[in-house]
Write a structure and sequence with these properties.
The complex is a heterodimer of chains A (about 110) and B (about 110).
Chain A (H helix, E strand, L loop, with lengths): L3 E4 L2 E4 L4 E8 L5 E7 L6 E7 L2 E5 L6 E7 L2 E7 L7 E8 L6 E2 L3 E5 L1
Parallel strand pairs in A: 2-11
Antiparallel strand pairs in A: 1-3, 3-8, 4-5, 4-9, 5-6, 7-8, 9-10, 9-11
Chain B lengths: L3 E3 L4 E4 L4 E7 L6 E7 L5 E6 L5 E3 L2 E6 L4 E6 L8 E10 L2 E4 L3 E6 L1
The chains are: A mainly beta (about 110), B mainly beta (about 110).
């Protein structure tokens, strides 16, 4: 299984809602990532988990809260988002020193 | 200066053409290098890793010049299905990937 899966594919939420994005990989990769990508821009790193511990937080606002329940799962909890947070949210995983494999992403719209 | 710089294109080429993309990076301590392709409204997909010795995968050849901090991707015999955005990606530190802005390729019949 060489796949990273993400749910949901699309999400529309209001600024007062709380929602969660989910990501799963079964490749035994030790690192998992959250990226944000706006239209016509490259992905921007948000968080990295290495061996289930948060290793990198790229100064992301606290309205985004990551969680790694186990080595295969990664969540991104969303609360009180702003319309400018609308974007494609990508999850990725990798093994030591290798390239990262991306999931299909969740397209988020904040109203 | 951006950490990873690419010509945004677009490159419009006919089927069968050879096309080359270039990329420069600023962090000389970078260890790993990759090319990704991204189709419209899809996720980036790893195309190939890039090594100093150069590496080839079918019609695709990637090259790294550490002294010049320069990475290239050559696509031979372009196909319509090669139309995509090609992202140059550099790993300046453990677990961090820095993406270039991407080069758009459009292959026409």
């Amino acid at each position: 299984d060489t796949e990273v899966t993400q749910t949901p594919k699309h999400l529309v939420m209001g600024m007062t809602n709380k929602k969660s994005l989910k990501c799963e990989q079964h490749m035994g990769h030790r690192a998992m990532y959250w990226y944000k990508q706006k239209a016509k821009k490259p992905p921007e790193l948000m968080f990295v988990y290495s061996y289930e511990k948060l290793s990198i937080n790229e100064s992301v606002p606290s309205r985004f809260s990551p969680e790694c329940p186990n080595s295969s799962l990664l969540n991104l909890h969303l609360h009180a988002l702003q319309p400018e947070d609308s974007a494609l949210y990508l999850c990725a995983s990798s093994q030591e020193g290798g390239g990262q494999f991306f999931g299909p992403g969740t397209r988020l719209t904040v109203l | 200066r951006k950490e990873v710089e690419q010509d945004p294109g677009p490159f419009n080429v006919p089927e069968g053409a050879t096309v080359a993309f270039n990329c420069t990076y600023s962090n000389s301590a970078s260890q790993s290098f990759f090319w990704y392709r991204q189709d419209c409204r899809k996720e980036p997909k790893l195309l190939m890793s890039v090594y100093s010795s150069g590496n080839e995968d079918g019609r695709f050849t990637a090259q790294l010049n550490r002294a010049s901090q320069y990475i290239s991707l050559l696509i031979r015999d372009s196909k319509l299905s090669d139309s995509a955005t090609y992202l140059c990606v550099v790993n300046p530190a453990t677990d961090k990937l820095i993406f270039g802005t991407g080069t758009r390729l459009q292959v026409f019949p």
